[in-house]
Amino acid sequence: MTNKTLFPEGFLWGGAIAANQAEGAWNIDGKGMSVADIAMYKPDIDIKDYVKQWHIGLEDIDNAMKATEDAYYPKRRGIDFYHKYKEDIALFKEMGFKTLRVSIAWARIFPNGNEEKPNEKGLKFYEDLFKELRESNIEPLVTLSHYEMPLYLVNNYDGWVSRDLVDMFVKYAKVCFERYKGLVKYWLTFNEIDSVFRHAFTTLGVVEDKYANKKEAEKAIYQALHHQFIAAALATKYCHKIISNSQVGCMVTKTLTYPETCNPDDIILAQRDNRNNFIYTDVQVLGEYPRYLLNYLKKNNIEIKMNEGDEAILKQYTSDFIAFSYYMSMVQSVNAEQREKVGGNLVTGVKNPYLPISEWGWQVDPKGLRVSLIDLYDRYRKPLWIVENGIGAYDKVEEDGSINDDYRIEYFRKHFEQIGLAIDEGVECMGYTSWACIDIVSASTSQMSKRYGFIYVDADDLGNGTYKRSKKKSFYWYKKVISSNGADLD
Ligand code: BG6
């Protein structure tokens, strides 16, 4: 059944992946080692213990660098998108994608991050990829940094704690803008820049174990984050200069928190968490550190070293649009200790009795997406782009080869209805790219069996399989959604 569509004409429907989870080819054509190549698949890990999944210490780095066997480092092989991208793009085209979100692996362009000259083979790979997308009428949306900085910068510079990384990143960004100016119009700077406190290693190259205590690690993280803010602002500046019609977005995890009750103490706790989530967009969209953060830093004796002119850079080069990921909502309660907890892509929170949870313990909340869209739009009045949203599930291949992922269809249907309603309430939404449109390696658990795609990839957690692609039931459903511009969700 086709209803009147609430989605605007030209709405950018599509999907999203990231280089480190899809490409594989981790040491091919001159690519340097990245932070993602260190991430281990641990069969005995508690998939609901988010903090443990992400923890990487000095010993882990050392072991990974020495490892001769790659089986337990799934991001090194991804889904071999590096060699199979043409086949995958043909499938995205068949679904009718208007856009595809991909990222560039910095270590493919500058293997250690600090070289004089870029690696031509890396540049060529992305040039061919973007050309293929253009020829397929798919608009590329490109993230400059999605959890894949060169490992050399961790081992030799303390990651983003070092100011030197600003220059290196800006140089890398400029090389990309120059090379891809005729091919890419939409750019994102740092994926989920707010994840710095959830996994400092992957986002900032900060190894927390190196610091004397939590306080010192926190100081280092704020310093490193400041450098990323400056690098993002400067990348935005040069992108506009080099590519005249470009649009650059910041990218955050939308972490909506509800109060458990109308007890004002619950409300204050939830408000605190929601404000903490706004820090990153406040800086990148409003162009300044919010007063609540400045007060916190002062009270806690955290001094961020800023260069002269940093404040002006933040003020001048703000984001054109806000891109965000949305997977779940959270609950805060003064009685949290006595409440049942759930996991998620955040830290553990109080369980919401009104919401179902995924097999990984993530609370599924489509209406929370509507609330998030409205909150973000009301606060910033900037166009929004949902660049990640989806459900990780164990999919079953039937004897006849079919994959009947009705739960995924149901998940998307409910979220699309809510996006439509938010648009109806005046929210400007540019597009939607599902995470991940094809099965890829999970960011947190490094599992292949945590599947998000409309396209199934025949591979297991240890890399066994043919890597053959096949269409799930949701493939056909999403195709219909796109061709009706969101009117047909049946
Ligand atoms: C987001 C990341 O946080 O969540 C993605 O930007 C990630 O890289 C996605 O894959 C889903 O998380 P996971 O751990 O299930 O892969």
From TrEMBL:
UniProtKB keywords: Glycosidase, Hydrolase
EC number: 3.2.1.86
Stored Pfam families: Glyco_hydro_1
One of the GO biological process terms: carbohydrate catabolic process
PROSITE patterns, per the entry: GLYCOSYL_HYDROL_F1_2
Coiled-coil annotated spans: none
Xref: InterPro entries: GH (IPR017853), GH_1_N_CS (IPR033132), Glyco_hydro_1 (IPR001360)
Gene Ontology MF, one: 6-phospho-beta-glucosidase activity
GO cellular component: cytosol
Gene3D superfamilies (alphabetical): Glycosidases
Homology family: Belongs to the glycosyl hydrolase 1 family.
PANTHER family: 6-PHOSPHO-BETA-GLUCOSIDASE ASCB-RELATED (PTHR10353:SF122), GLYCOSYL HYDROLASE (PTHR10353)
The protein's name in its UniProt record: Aryl-phospho-beta-D-glucosidase BglH
Originating species: Clostridium puniceum
